[in-house]
Fold each of these.
Amino acid sequence: MPSKVDYWLKRLLPRRCVLCGMEAGYRNLCTPCLADMPWIDPRCDRCGAALTGAAERAVCACDDLRLECIDRVFAALVYEYPVDRLIVDAKFHARPDLARASGDALLWALGSASSLSQMWPDLLVPVPLHPNRFHSRGFNQSIEIARPVARRLGIKLARNACIRQRDTPAQSTLSGRLRRTNPRNAFVARAVVSGRHVAIVDDVITTGSTASAVAVALRAAGAEAVSVWCVARVMRSQAAAAKL
Ligand SMILES: [Zn+2]
Ligand SMILES: [Zn+2]
């Protein structure tokens, strides 16, 4: 069990980049590693996909994700190396520092996305884990991602505004059709979201099924607008190749 002294030393000393080990200031990723990430730019204002060719258009066909009750998706990165490793290793090797590094990347992208300023949310709601999974993993990666974003942008992190009432199988273990039906009715949101613009925070958006299930619950509890802020997005070509 780490002592309180260890805890504060870790908080106060400059952090090391989780990718290259260089000093990274208050972040978990250094500036050169951040600059080398596979950023989505330009991105679709509605579904977060990378726009190709006609960059003057702000939206694409937006037909590869389920966007039920979701106004817009903001995704920082293409789901490929090294962010795919950060996301997978955070969850399966119990590394909350990697999830916070993903949050640093999301924050970096949000900071340069001027089009978002009219759509700034009142609350950040991390995609909840079922208590069984939270206890076995020891942390919720979406909460860790949301922490640096909430702190730096001054947006309230409402970690208990939505709960997962059904313990559904992990999306990563399922194929396409099951992925789309698995999270339905798994979530319930609390009245704190009523009349608010809420941004759901997640690590990766693949089919949009989980985010949509959370968004449906948020709307049922009275949320006025729902955005999704995620670290990475699976692109249409990647989904087709993986038969998602
Ligand atoms: Zn680095
Ligand atoms: Zn789109």
Amino acid sequence: MSQSEVLGREQLLAAYRGMKTIREFEERVHAEIMNGQIAGFTHLYTGQEANAIGVCAHLDHEDTIISTHRGHGHCIAKGADVVGMMKELFGSSEGLCKGKGGSMHVADVDKGILGANGIVAGGPPISVGSALAAKIRDNGRVAVSFSGDGSVNQGTCFEAMNLAVVLNVPAIFVIENNYYSEHTNISYAVGCDDLKARTEAFGFPVFVADGADFFSVHEAAGKAVEHARSGNGPAGVFAETGRFHGHFVGDPQYYRAEGELEDLRENSCCLKNFRARMAETGELGSDELDAIDTEVLALIEQAVTESKAAARPTAEQVTEDVYIHYGNA
Ligand SMILES: Cc1ncc(C[n+]2csc(CCOP(=O)(O)OP(=O)(O)O)c2C)c(N)n1
Ligand SMILES: [Mg+2]
């Protein structure tokens, strides 16, 4: 049975809406940075949307995710409020983290979003801790870490994968291979041709996905989540994907091959792939998808309008929530 046969209409509509929301959020953030409205260092997820949505479709609020410096998409996929996130990026005290997290430290613990994270491979160890909590509480929850191809050579990643096996905890390591770590191609940085085999050598199954195809990611992630939720210990998802922008907003991307970006947008677009699949199966009409496009654009417009008008932190608020005081000390 194909993945689109497994999914009902509501799930298909939600998947498309989720990917489209991330796409438009990111493209608008790009525009607002370029016209000077959003300050700070920002990494866009455009092009990788199917990974966040395909994985998070299997999770609920009680499951946890930990993200990366490229975290907007993961947070939206896990249910972060889009307007609150935009306000956060605009540095408003009405933002999800009162404007103090910004792009690289968005979090919403009530939704199981343990945070974006500026430390490459900082997420996998945190997900092992969260997975251990789930195991001790015996609550059937799983803990997902998203990380990139740049994370797989980091010791923290190796240690987390090993410890997850030793402790037999429901941690899921989602590796998004977009072929670049900053400006360095994976062919230079990773001294191994078979990352799946290298990761599986830690002692858990890894499911491979086409990161431009929601259905492929959904299927692979479904197997990983099922494995971990059933008490079989950790699992991995390895997705090949592509980022449509630079490493950060403003990156001149001199390292790209000629025509590479055009090719990615044309041939590795999860939204185009999803629409093509629906046209083929007839499960959703293009008019239904067009209607979602219109709704999403209106939501992003509303998010930006509200963010521009939203309160900025006062001088007093700047030092609030920075330190926690324990007892009387
Ligand atoms: C421990 C650590 N080393 C280096 C950096 C600088 N740095 C920020 S992002 C990045 C590349 C990460 O590449 P990847 O994991 O593939 O994620 P992507 O940017 O492709 O999403 C690097 C080296 C960092 N933030 N943390
Ligand atoms: Mg990368």
